[in-house]
Amino acid sequence: MNHPPLSPLARTAILFAAGLGLVFDGIELGLMPIASLSVSQSLMGEAYTEKLGGQWFAWFTAALMLGAAIGGILLGNLGDRIGRSRAMGVSILFYSIFAAMGAWVTRQEEMLLLRFLVGLGVGGLWPNAMALVAESWTTASRPLAMGVMSAGLNGGILLLSQIARIWPISSESWRWLFYLAGVPAALGIVVLTILPESPTWLASRQQNVKRPSVSLGALFRRDLLPITLVAICLASIPLIGAWSASKWMIPWADKIASGQDPGYKGATQGWWALGATIGSFIGAQLVGYLGRRTCYLLISIGTTVLTIAMFQWTAPLQPGFHAVVFAQGLVATLFFGWLAVFLPEIFPVHVRATGSGLAYNSGRFATAVGVIFAGGLFSLLGGDYRQVGTTCAFIYALGILAIWLVPVKRNALDG
After folding, report:
1. Per-residue pLDDT at 166 exceeds 60
2. Model pTM score
């Protein structure tokens, strides 16, 4: 049985639901960078110090990244087994329900566990949403659709930053933010029950009836191993750089400016997220104009320079700080628009969500380790945000070498 192509309305519904899921995904990613110090001050009371606040920020981030790595691989694999849209719905329910439970925590350790569980859903959404949209939109319109998807993730961070500017988050007022993070559960139910499925996936399941399950081991067979390893490497560098280096600018802004301007950290995240929303959309378009290698190479160089500039050539409350933050957000997130095009096209359909999930989220395993290292470095450097951010910025420079590992293009989406 051949499955007819999706109608324009069905394709639009898929893009809207997947994009909205990624907006909420972005809110989950941006939640602790903007709230972590307030949460720690509230839960730790008199035991709180600036150094401990920075260390707990690193641990919360590492827990989220570890959960996202595991969730991306397991729920990405689930998308190849039960369908992209159903796995998307499961992922949204995971991150929204466990995020809402954060409103009732009384100890740091409870929040740490919940951030891990939130990460499972955060990681699972990306590969299934990207695979579903990539398979539902035609070759000509696919880069535009993938750009919209990538922008959605950072659009969520931008939305959260504006909410935090209107209602500043403090040690006395932060639990409402976690109630808000539980709202996407309604979207998860809708996606799980009525969103159309990818006709490409449905056809693939019929062609592979004698092989009903998709194993992670398939990605490490001789024919796919080189593709898998290169994809993991190229996805890991921007993820490790983002969370080990870039994200320190928000608690840095919180530390320096909170006494003068409680909304400054929200403004800082907002300027970064505005640049990131533009950058993640443009990144998907630049692949077609510049080519995969040239595009990734230039992004690696630009991000390294701008991240060092953000920590060394300016500082919170200085006139040029937010301009550099905006530029760093724009250039650093070009990576993710690039990955949105590259990862689905490089893997064949029967392992597409599994492969994309493994590649994107293996970087999160490394990111969890990198963030813990950065937290230890933060302590070793005496709580110096400027030095830890600068040191970790050189992670982005690894992309200048890694991009030469990319194989000759083979677009698996259309063949």
Report:
1. yes
2. 0.74
